[in-house]
Design brief:
By secondary structure, the chain is mainly beta. The chain has a single domain, classed as Sandwich (Jelly Rolls), CATH 2.60.120. It is about 15% helix and about 35% strand. The chain contains three helices and 13 strands. The strands form three sheets. Strands 1, 5, 6, 8, 11 and 13 form a six-stranded antiparallel β-sheet that branches. Strand 2 (about 60) and strand 3 (about 65) form a beta hairpin. Bound molecules: calcium ion (CA). Calcium ion binds near residues 58, 91 and 192.
Length: about 200
């Protein structure tokens, strides 16, 4: 999501409109797919973990930044890694404090047949005490936008989760994950240990 903030904000604002349109009856929507997915509620089906994104643990670092994670344009200097306080492994992604909001994102490709009609879930560990609006956002092909709950800004590692039901008709293939400070952070915002599951 190498977009300017206005575009991102607009696309997030539009997602509610899009969802409302999709949920409106009688507009050709596959209602079975939008209904509660039976398989997701079946405890006998175990979520399958997939490695959808590169460098999900932020352990591969080049020039001081985790590879594959693209910072917000013109704010690359806000992104680094920290070692001493990583959640797991040696490195965690660090977005530094500053006067604006920042993010990193990564677009991945997936065969839509692997996820159609299933729930895609991303979890991430987030640690901050200066960014009460930090979230993890998932988009399907830049069209459907989903956001996690805000990470608690309590100075501890907290797991945040974002899920989406992938419509059966979703053409794919691009899924974009954005790790977002949400507001101008008053202190560093750390991210680590991303996992992706399909059920
Ligand atoms: Ca790590």
């Amino acid at each position: 999501m190498a977009t300017e903030p206005v575009t991102l904000g607009r696309s997030i604002a539009c997602s509610g409109v899009v969802l409302a349109i999709l949920l409106a009856p009688g507009c050709g929507v596959d209602r079975d797919t939008l209904a509660t997915p039976t398989r997701y509620n079946n405890p006998a089906i175990v979520p399958e973990e997939i490695s959808l994104f590169f460098n999900q643990d932020f352990e591969t670092v080049e020039a001081g930044r985790p590879v594959e994670w693209v910072p917000r344009k013109n704010h690359e200097d806000k992104v680094s890694v920290v070692q001493e306080s990583a959640y797991s492994g040696k490195n965690a992604l660090c977005i530094d404090y500053g006067p604006e909001w920042y993010f990193v994102s990564q677009a991945a490709s997936i065969d839509p047949g692997l996820v159609a009609g299933k729930v895609l879930t991303v979890t991430a560990m987030v640690k901050t005490e200066g960014a009460p609006l930090a979230t993890v956002n998932l988009s399907l092909d830049g069209f459907y936008q989903f956001s996690s709950a805000r990470a608690p800004s309590n100075g501890r590692w907290n797991k945040v989760e974002v899920s989406c039901l992938v419509p059966a008709w979703w053409p794919g293939p691009t899924v974009t994950l954005t790790l977002n400070t949400g507001s101008a952070p008053a202190g560093p915002v750390l991210f680590d240990d991303i996992h992706v599951h399909v059920k």
